[in-house]
Amino acid sequence: MAGKPKLYYFDGRGKMESIRWLLSAAGVEFEEQFLTTREQYEKLLHDGSLLFQQVPMVEMDGMKMVQTRAILSYIAAKYNLYGKDVKERALIDMYVGGTDDLMSFIIKFPFLPAEDKEKELAHIIQKATGRYFPAYEKVLKDHGQDFLVGNCLSWADVHLLEAILMVEEKKSDVLSAFPRLQAFKANISSIPAIKKFLEPGSQRKPVPDDKYVETVRKVLRM
């Protein structure tokens, strides 16, 4: 019997958080190895574990996988969260790609100089409410279903819920003009595996703080 997936990253969100989300949505338990020192990172480099000298890295099914998108695609395909055919997979990839574009602004936010954060926060809210959330609101309106693709849970749904909650941490009423996304959020959040991940004590990480930023900078020599 294969062991639990093992996740190598920092004790914080970053690019690993979406992997935690997807594994949890699939009901898969996982272990984590947190990087806190430069020496840990260099050991992974010297061991040849990091093909492109980057984390995240996930040990799973006898593989040492890097590149966030590849890891997520593998998990989605393995646990039936990647559609029933190539057309559904293309839609899922398209929606995940859009959500990634929005999330990239938020992931970078903690590392910005303090004087740039107010302007970037306004930029994030503008992008969310002017480009990305209207698109998903239209998708849900046009097909009249509870999920983005194929009327069943997919990677696209999990990814979008993660992004919605991240933007709501910046502006709590950001969904006020999007009734279908409000219903979507309630629906996806109530799925038992996801509900469990959203509860206190799970492996979901909190909003990045100064300690997380300092650790990443130290380990990666940023």
Strand content: 5-15%
Task: Work out the helix count.
Answer: 9
SS elements, strand count: 4
Q: Uncertain segments of ≥5 residues (pLDDT<50)?
A: none
| Overall residue-averaged pLDDT value | 97
Broad shape = globular
Keywords: Transferase
Family: Belongs to the GST superfamily. Alpha family.
Pfam families: GST_C_3, GST_N
GO molecular function, one term: glutathione transferase activity
Features:
Glutaredoxin; Glutathione-S-Trfase_C_sf; Glutathione_S-Trfase; Glutathione S-transferase Yfyf (Class Pi), Chain A, domain 2; globular; 4 strands; alpha+beta
Describe it for me?
This protein has 222 residues and is an alpha+beta fold. It has two domains: 97 residues, Glutaredoxin; 105 residues, Glutathione S-transferase Yfyf (Class Pi), Chain A, domain 2 (Up-down Bundle). β3 and β4 form a beta hairpin. The longest helix has 30 residues. It is globular and about 50 Å long. The model has no long low-confidence stretch (mean pLDDT 97).
In short:
With 222 residues, the protein is α+β, with helices and mostly antiparallel strands. The protein is 57% helix and 7% strand.
